[in-house]
Structures are given as C-alpha cells and as structure tokens.
Amino acid sequence: MVTDKMPQNFRYIGLLATAIPEAKIVHVKRKTAAVCWGNYKQYFKSKNLGYCYDLDDVVRYHELYENLMAFWDMSIGKRIYTLYYDLLTVNQKDETSKLIAYLDLEWDEKCLFPQNNWRRVTTASNVQVREKVYQGSSQQLKHYKPFLKALLDGLDDWLE
Fold first, then answer.
1. Is there a contact between 80 and 13 (Cβ–Cβ < 8 Å)?
2. Is the pLDDT score of 109 beyond 80?
3. Does the model's pTM come out above 0.85?
4. Phi-psi bin for 80: left (phi > 0), alpha (psi -120 to 50), beta?
5. Contact, 86 vs 138, CB < 8 A?
6. How confident is the model at residue 66, as a pLDDT?
7. Which of 3 and 130 is assigned the larger pLDDT?
8. How far apart are CA 135 and CA 88, in angstroms?
9. What is the predicted pLDDT for the residue at 159?
10. What count of Cα atoms within 13 Å lies in the side-chain half-sphere of residue 116?
C-alpha cells in the first residue's frame, strides 16, 4: 500500500492506473475554497508547488484539477473511490467503514481514532493528524474574507 497526498497527485492517475491495474485510488474531495485556501496558506518545500503562492494561480490550478478528475471519473471511475471530506467529519464511522470496505481491508475500531496512531508523519499536516476528526476546518478561511479581495467568492458555498 502506498499513501501520498501531495496536491498534484491527480496528474498521475492515468500512469498509476496503467502501471498498476489492480490499484485502488482514493480521491478525497473537499470544498473548493477550503482546498485553495489550504494550499495557499501552506509553505511547501517542493518547487513543483509554486502555484500555491498566488491565490489566482491556486484557483486556476484547482479548475484544471476538477477538469482532469472529471475525465478520470468518466474513463476509470470504478477504480476511483471519492471520499467527501465534509461527510467524513459528520459521519466518521459510516464513511470510514465504506472506505475500508472499498479497500478490502478488515475493519478495526482504531480506524475511528487516527489521532492515536503515533507512527511518523512528515507531511504539512503532521500536527493536524494528531487531532480527532473534527468539523469546521473547511470554514476557517471565512475569518480572512476581508483580506481576500473576493478571490474565492463563487467557488462554492464556503461561507455556509
């Protein structure tokens, strides 16, 4: 099993699907504005993520991602499991159970307590993974609305 959650991984789905025909792909879908804001506010070491440092570029890049994911969904949709982040925070047990079933893994109650897993994490979210699954993180950016010059308005209902 391989887990890699870098923002640009969607570009490699075709290669992955061809190289590893039995691969199951998990696509975590989150509100557009929350994704764009999350990428913008994060410092990434990789030079391949330079688009993250300009909010206009982040929004345009996200549109490219949406278009390519729509293509993959039409092409190999049965091999892609879409996990909706906000549903996971509301119905953690049900959504986690569905994901575990899709992956043909055995259920373990520990799946409901990811914050208790103390393995090494070296991603940008290394602190967040030590917290319980919680609601509302997609709404954190609303506090910055006065400073965003309407760049994220209209992407989705990000101020619900």
1. yes
2. yes
3. no
4. beta
5. yes
6. 93
7. 3
8. 9
9. 44
10. 5
Domains parsed from the chain with CATH numbers: 9-147 (3.40.50.300)
pLDDT cut 90: percent of the chain above it: 41
pLDDT, average across residues 66-76? 95
Q: How sure is the predictor about 158, in pLDDT bands with cuts at 50, 70 and 90?
A: very low
Q: SS in 3 state form for the chain?
A: CCCCCCCCHHHHHHHHHHHCCCCCEEEEECCHHHHHHHHHHCCCCCHHHHHHHCHHHHHHHHHHHHHHHHHHHHHHHHHEEEEEHHHHHHCHHHHHHHHHHHCCCCCCHHHHCHHHCCCCCCCCCCCHHHCCCCCCHHHHHHHHHHHCCCCCCCCCCCCC
Q: What tokens were used for 110? A: 């520990």
CA distance 131 to 17: 32
The token pair that represents 85 in the structure block = 């982040």
